[in-house]
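CORE FACILITY INTAKE
Project code: CF-77B
Contact: R.S. (postdoc)
Sample description: multi-component assembly, two entities in total
Requested service: structural model of the whole complex
Turnaround: standard
Below are the sequence entries exactly as provided by the requester. Do not edit them.
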Amino acid sequence: MAAVRETIREDWPGADIYAPVFPFGKWRLSCQRAATIVADQIKIIDELVAERKQSGSGYKDITLVGYSFSAALARKIAIIAYGEQSSTNGERPAPFELEFRHFKMPRTWAKLIKRIVLLAGINRGWSVSSAMDWTTTVKWSAMQLLGETVLRGKPTLFEIRKGAPFLVHTRLQWLALMNPEYRSPGQQPERPDIVVVQLLGTGDDLVSPDDTVDYSVDLFKEQSGVMVRPSYFYIEVKHSTHHNVIDMAKAGTTQTKRARAERRRKFLLALKEDPAILAHKTISIPREHMADNLPPPPDPDVTHVVFVIHGIRDKGFWTQKMARRIKELGEKNGQKFASWTESYGYFAMAPFIFDTVRQRKVEWMMDRYAEARARYPKAKFHYVGHSNGTYLAAKALLDYPAARFERVVFAGSVVRRDWWPSFIQRNPDAPRVKLLNYVATRDWVVALFPKGVQPWRRFELGSAGHDGFDPASDGG
Amino acid sequence: MKYIVGGHGAGHEEAHWDDIAKFIVTGDPPQPTDSRLFSKTQSAFWRIVGGASFIIFPTLVAVILGIGILLFWWMFAKLPCSVFPYLRDLISLGELTWGVCTSDPTAREAALRAIWFFMYLWMVYLAATRF
């Protein structure tokens, strides 16, 4: 990042540059929690702003620049700075994590954040995908295996794996922050005036062009009738990969001179240019050209969304048929239902036993959940799950405080019997979840396998689908 | 508490779709009146199996692994020492030779061992990915 700092210093000689080096930058398998890193940075920025104010005039504006993983941290800093968002009736659409319990009020410098520049920002998270070249695939697969088994998923990098809690919360909190209907504590509902610019190399095979929820954030305004200028710009940087998009130094080899100049030019555009100019199609890529597989625009007319998720040893064709039945009934009742019935593929019994494999499925689902919240900003969410599908919801409700399912149906549940009381105990102020648990007369799968490992808490499996749940203490 | 009649997949069978849809749309739980769909009692056999599953399941896993270990030992305990003569020195510890490399398998034995080995691997693969 030295070249980036140098570029800023040259172009903005009067700017103070604060460029922390995070532990995961030095050691890939560092295990410091991402939320702790962000909380520490907020405290440091508090001090920097206070010092500047004491020494004379305060800052006029703050620009956050993040590269790769740090892009997610930069965005999170902006989110936390604005405080926890809520609706006028007190509903919290995306509550802060425990680490931010002392940061629920907005910082004095929040409104100084005018721009976030993401250099190859990993917004949606990483995953080992077929889009990677084979050396990257081998390297990332080995790192993933090591992190999951030996380090039990604790490395900081696992917090930006696609669908991981930190990242899903960040995406949901960003949606809440940029939604003009929500407000910071003690303030009127208002959308912050923050411009986000994503710079992505044409040769980047780690981050896909549709890697962000920002595309839908700008579409909120069209439905809500509030006119705000576009806030998200996606700029491609020629001759650049994920790793060298930050190499914009003036000095260097002749072979890379053109590429470095291109990166520097694009970076300065992202850093300083007026949004009206950034919006020009010669600079940023219009939404319709961003990616062929971008989700459709948000639909605020949908009042309810139901996830119908299949279980192990099941292709899940029934999910679409059941979802149709729900939508039909919803229509008769004057409600507009949408459904999410995507399959995570055939899931056999043996891999199901391993919590690391199940965790990947949870993250798969929560990645879709964040997408669904972006697509259906006004909807209430419900859930129908069978077998492993019940595990996904149970885990999501425990580990992702921002995950909201109001009516939940479990069938053939493989969840532990004490999950329900634990959930109630750990989420006393969470909106009440109404749960219908189907227990069969001859469910040998649950009776034998998940129940067989229930005494060992580490497996996180149990016999709720055979014995029912333990009663919650408050009768919930 | 009432049970739905059937096995692991009973909850997502078509007979319950209307009840589930009603619960999701209105929040009203189903009325378990139809005796073809609901029962007051659970299968006694599967209750007993469930009660002992913390023994049955680990035993089942031990049996499957045990079969694999036995097959593995049977296939590789008598190593083909004429092909890899240094194995005798490698595996032997002083005077102890643990009975390995005492005789070479016949061609028929070697073929059978190879077949069993690949069958076992195939079964493990199927069990891990399809069952």
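Facility notes:
- The CA atoms of residues 235 and 468 of chain A lie 53 Å apart.
- Chain A touches chain B through 54 residues (CB under 8 Å).
Invoice: internal transfer
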